[in-house]
Amino acid sequence: MIENNEQEFESQVSLNDYLRIMYRGRWIIVISFIIVFLSTIYFTFTSSPVYEASTSIIIESNGSMERSLFDMNPFGNQSTLIANQIEILKSRTLAERVVKRLDLSDVRDSLQIFQPDAEGGYLTLRSMVRIIQESMEIEHRKETDVIEIKYKAGSTFESAYIANTIADEFQLANSEANRSEINELRKFVETQLFKKGEELRRSEEHLREYQERKKVASLDEETTELINRLAEVEALFEEAQIELKSKLEMKSSLEEKLEERKETLSSDLSGISTPYISSLQNELAQLVAERTKYVIAVEMEVDPANKRHFQEKIKGYDINIKALKEKLEEEAKKISISSMVQDPFRLSQELVTRLITIDADVKSVSAKINALQDVVRDYNNKLESLPEKVLELARLERRRKVDEQTYIMMTQKLEETKIQEAAQSKNVRIIDEAIEPLYPVSPKKKLNIMLGALIGLGLGVGLTFLIEYFDNTIKTHEDVERMGFNILASIPKIEMDKYEKKLESKLEKFGSIEGKKIEARLITHLDPKSPVSESYRTLRTNLQFSKVDRQIKTILVTSSGPKEGKSTTAANLAIAMAQTGNKVALIDADLRRPVIHSIFGLNKDEGITNYLMETIPYEKLAKKTFLDNLFIMPCGVLPPNPSELLASRKMEEMLTKLRNDYDIVILDSPPVIAVTDAAILSTKVDGTILVVNSGQTNRDALTRANVLLDNVDSKLLGLLINGIDVDGIYGSYYYYYYHHYYSKPGKKKKNWASRIFSS
């Protein structure tokens, strides 16, 4: 039943409980708010401003080697290209280039990274590089090829200047990297062109000398046709050889770049090739060889009527070759992004793809060379049948035509390479240069102040609830009711400073204790109209009607632990009982740390221990006080065996006499958990009051005290909550109305919290 009531009570007042917790921790919330808010304001207005400038660049796809000398397609992936460029922007190498360029600039002395510190020291190159990397932010705009470079610095000029320097250095580095490959090819073509020019000059000279020496002007028509066809085939053969050399040069260049990034990659492609790729490469090479042989075999002899059939056959070859290249491209992409090729800088994927493709081209060109070599061999056999004089002239003429056609082809390719080399610088283009920002990005004053206020409040509320969560003490009568105990009364906290003057003005009326300062514990007598006094009178009333079937004459006052107000409760309860005309005896049964005698300003030397040891008679036991019908019986001399004395037959006899001589007998005892004295006395009285102190008594201690009293079958009349902080619990209607009812007229306290928590 108690459990059900407890759950129902919690569901009804859960919101009020939260509000009370916040009100009790209002000072924690206020202090937390003030500390965090003021700290935020201080750091916001004292920290140096940070400015951010940004520049935008675009990465175009017509980059390095996309249209190379011999139409090699790198099968590049634009998304991978953008990711690679972002990694390059973040790299240490680019940051070093930026620092070196800044060091040589005219504005070097105005840049913060080159300024000395407080001790006169300068940053090292590594430190400056780290600052550049940490202050830079790279952002890729979605669904575009645009990259935004942001840089933060302590001044508007520095942020914009360094952002533009980063973009310029990146553009320059990209251009240098793109040109490096095509530049190697250009040099190769120039070398081959020079060699071929020398060969052409020599072949022409040899032909001229032979014609002059042998007096031979020209060849016949049939021989000339044979020489022309052989020259064309040999020109194709030499072109294929030069193409093969260029592919091998590019392959070697790419392998060197990969070796720099990944030492574990072998010089050939055995480490990254797969059986499927090898089969595709072999099939492509075979198909290219077949196409070459077919073209050479029928191109010169094709009948105009069959020209359409010839073109369709060539088209079929081209479609099959294109399909094989697409398959090879797809497989190369899979390999480049798989675990077979893992580069820590994420820059080798495109190189691996291009390596696989170039390797396929090398095999295709090799097959083409083999096919052309067979055709050249057939034509040479036909030339061998000519007369010796005509044969030599035919050979010289053939050599001249081959050299001439090859020289023309190499000249065209050199021009194409130069055009391609010039176009490489357009791979990275700056869209918007950085300009000096108008406002700092940090600190954001309005945002910081708002966040400081929110964090301060949140931290205060969080700490309040955290403290409440770990706080296991009794605070209000609602906490006690949840545990299922009967509450006799709730005593507000006695504020010593508040009553000091009032007590001093009444000291003169107290006769024997005149000139001594009485503690505010006697508030029931000193200020009978106070809320505290009324609370003790409420306790008196509840005790009088707690047992209607029998009269309660002896009452034990105890607590679970020390300093919970049991002695103050016993003293004020005795005064409240005496004020109704009852003859009251207050016994200080705390034989370990007695307090009652000091509260009333008495001497404790002759008390109950003296009587129990039969050193004084019963008549000398009671001491008179400022109230005619209130008598105090101090503890007497502190004994070595308090428990034995309290459990003695002499103690029972004394209590029997007191019941007969007094209307009410109140005993102040030690804490029930600390010693067994209270448990012993609880069996000898009509009822026991258990005092708990608000904010001090632990729930577990209260439960343990209740168990100890139950074990000896004590008669627990109920609990008294002592030291209630009235200002902190206005959520209770009882405290709200009680507090204002006993306020003095004309001095009502307007408390906003009381209105909020009582609503």
Number of domains: 3
The CATH homology group name of the largest domain: P-loop containing nucleotide triphosphate hydrolases
What would you call the shape? rod-shaped
The name of the CATH topology of the largest domain is Rossmann fold
- Number of helices, where a helix is a run of at least 4 consecutive DSSP H or I residues: 25
CA-based gyration radius: 54 Å
Sheet with most strands: 8 strands, mixed
Overview of the structural elements:
With 759 residues, the protein is α/β, with parallel strands linked by helices. It has 3 domains: 74 residues, no CATH class; 242 residues, no CATH class; 248 residues, 3-Layer(aba) Sandwich (Rossmann fold), CATH 3.40.50. Helix content is 58%, strand content 9%. The protein has 25 helices and 12 strands. An 8-stranded mixed sheet has the order 5-12-11-6-10-7-9-8, with helices on both faces. Helix 7 packs antiparallel against helix 10. The chain is rod-shaped. The two termini are 29 Å apart. The N terminus and C terminus are likely disordered.
Short précis:
The protein is α/β, with parallel strands linked by helices and 759 residues long. The chain folds into three domains: 2-47 and 443-470, no CATH class; 183-424, no CATH class; 477-724, Rossmann fold, CATH 3.40.50.
Any chance you could write out the topology, listing elements then pairs?
Layout: H1 2-24, H2 26-46, E1 51-59, H3 78-90, H4 92-103, H5 125-135, E2 136-140, E3 146-153, H6 156-214, H7 221-261, H8 275-298, H9 307-336, H10 349-383, H11 388-423, E4 428-432, H12 445-470, H13 477-482, E5 487-492, H14 496-506, H15 523-526, H16 531-544, E6 554-559, H17 566-579, E7 584-588, H18 596-599, H19 608-612, E8 623-624, E9 630-633, H20 642-646, H21 649-661, E10 664-668, H22 677-682, E11 687-693, H23 699-711, E12 716-724, H24 733-741, H25 752-758
Parallel strand pairs: 5-12, 6-10, 6-11, 7-9, 7-10, 11-12
Antiparallel strand pairs: 1-3, 1-4, 2-3, 8-9
